[in-house]
Specification:
Helix content is 20%, strand content 33%. It is an alpha+beta fold and 237 residues long.
């Protein structure tokens, strides 16, 4: 029955995936079009970067610990990013979800609490695979969600603190994973809720951070704090 539901769900989002693929085709022919237009009319040429997206149906499965968890969800549904849908499997086990948007200087923290009355205005309504989230769990629970994954992912990072996701199933060494944003970042943090003694793990690309360099790899389902000296794009392939 689960497989049938998943296939029907994927069929439902196929038109959107088709449009995404067509958009990639259009982008890929754009440079030739504008080169020809320049030769004929003298208009300026537009430089276009072609990014080929691999879109795959996937199931996300992990476990959240009682208390605070810093998480991200690699799977998503392009037709519906609602918290109620994406966190349905742990409904009743989590108390609140929080995100951080550093470029929203007046109110960077956004939150959702499923236990508040319906008339309360909540400023966090959807889940983005490229963002990290603090989730407070009242008890341990197993999380699962059927959606799609996309590869590669480009995550825009702004100056200052960023709370970001890691939308892939691949474990990678921290040096390899962060190479695309060197030397524009300093701090890179992970919070491991299951570690009984040292939940925060840290890394700096030049070793300038006081304390142990104990963040050795980027791991799926975790969120990450990153401090940027200047804007850059984290490329996750």
């Amino acid at each position: 029955m689960d497989k049938i539901i998943f296939h029907k769900k994927f069929e439902k989002i196929m038109p959107i995936l088709t449009l995404m693929i067509l958009a990639g085709v259009i982008i890929s022919i754009s440079p030739q079009f504008f080169d020809l237009r320049q030769k004929i009319t003298g208009f300026a040429t537009l430089n276009t970067t072609v990014v080929i997206l691999n879109i795959t149906p996937n199931a996300c499965n992990t476990t959240f610990e009682s208390g605070w968890n810093l998480i991200s969800i690699p799977c998503y549904d392009p037709t519906n990013d609602s918290i109620d849908l994406i966190f349905d499997s742990i409904d009743g086990s989590y108390r609140s979800i929080h995100s951080y948007e550093g470029d929203a200087s007046t109110d960077p923290w956004k939150a959702y609490n499923p236990n508040l009355p319906s008339w309360v205005v909540q400023d966090l309504s959807g889940i983005d695979r490229k963002k990290g989230y603090w989730v407070y769990m009242d008890q341990n629970d197993s999380y699962f969600y059927n959606g799609i994954t996309v590869d590669p992912n480009l995550i825009s990072l702004s100056t200052g603190w960023n709370l970001i996701g890691y939308p892939t199933f691949e474990n990678r060494s921290i040096e390899v994973s962060t190479s695309s944003i060197e030397p524009d970042f300093e701090y890179f943090y992970l919070y491991n809720a299951s570690d009984p003694t040292d939940k925060y793990k840290q890394y700096t690309w030049n070793g300038s951070l006081p304390g142990p360099q104990d963040l050795n790899s980027t791991v799926p389902y975790y969120g990450y704090w990153v401090y940027m000296y200047s804007p850059n794009t984290w490329v996750i392939t």
